[in-house]
Amino acid sequence: MPLSVRVPASTSNLGAGFDCLGLALDLWLEARLVEETGGPTYRGTLAGLRPDQDITLRLLRAGGVTSGWRLELDSAIPVGKGLGSSGAAIVAGLALAQLARQEPLDHARLLALATAEEGHPDNVGPAIYGGLFLAGRPGGWLALHSSLAPAFGLPERGLDTHEARRLLPRQVPREAAIAQATGAASLILGLIEGDPELIARGMEDHLAVPHRKGLIRGFDAAVSAGREAGAYGVTISGAGSALLGLGPKGAAPGIARAIAEALTKAGNPATAMTPGVAERGLTVGR
């Protein structure tokens, strides 16, 4: 009997929540183990993936799933855009390995293993638990205010996460650290309460965005356009290249269009996207 899991996409950092805050999105990776021989198959955004590039397959093999199963992957998550495609792949591989070994899924253990693999929990956390995830909170889950919705400008060109990481300084001034802590606290409270001023303050990142925004042509114009369209704040989604706007649900389509149009006008062709929030994370089927 086949084993299958579904894992959502995620947007991480959300501004000052660098490496500790993420939001699950209603875009899914479906991973399936079929009891037959043969090579893996890839569909959706993973079409054309080579097995030697496949994170899920690597983790299955590392977990002892080496024969008797064939892997099928079908994903709607854009790759290399800062929407948690690698985090979803990691969670899928670890979860399927546990299921193939007939072990019960322990979400806390899965989070620890996935964080060790990814290096930080802000994508793998929401992929496992769904909703708004805060690292360090038992269960991780917070309630995003019902008035809020994410909106994205999605450039055609992706970014390499490792390249984006290399741009970050190893040390930051004390003033930046204090501003980041203040912003993170404001952001979390604002997302829970739906407070526009707190969200706007909290989406100002002082650690990563100043060093990464040069990788995204049209960044400043897109931020301004998104705010003019009603976003409380606009920032880089994860390591990029997508830009995230957060604002009222009714304004989300217009925010996404404004961000995408500004990027495109700057020579960085982009499309608008408004996925909903995935309230559930990792789900298991047979």
Structural notes for this entry:
This protein folds into 2 domains: 3-141, Ribosomal Protein S5, domain 2 (2-Layer Sandwich), CATH 3.30.230; 145-273, GHMP kinase, C-terminal domain (Alpha-Beta Plaits, 2-Layer Sandwich), CATH 3.30.70.890. The protein has 10 helices and 11 strands. It has helices spanning 55-62, 85-100, 107-118, 124-129, 161-166, 174-193, 196-202, 209-212, 219-228, 252-265, and strands spanning 3-12, 21-34, 41-44, 70-75, 132-134, 141-142, 148-155, 233-236, 243-248, 270-273, 283-285. Strand 8 (233-236) and strand 9 (243-248) form a beta hairpin. Helix 2 packs across helix 3 (107-118) and helix 6 packs antiparallel against helix 7 (196-202).
Q: Secondary structure elements and their pairing?
A:
Elements: E1 3-12, E2 21-34, E3 41-44, H1 55-62, E4 70-75, H2 85-100, H3 107-118, H4 124-129, E5 132-134, E6 141-142, E7 148-155, H5 161-166, H6 174-193, H7 196-202, H8 209-212, H9 219-228, E8 233-236, E9 243-248, H10 252-265, E10 270-273, E11 283-285
Helix pairs in contact: 1-2, 2-3, 6-7, 9-10
State the distance separating the first and last CA atoms.
Answer: 7 Å
How many beta-strand elements?
Answer: 11
CATH class of the largest domain: Alpha Beta
Strand content: 15-25%
Q: What class, by secondary structure content?
A: alpha+beta
Unreliable residue runs: none
In CATH, the architecture of the largest domain is 2-Layer Sandwich
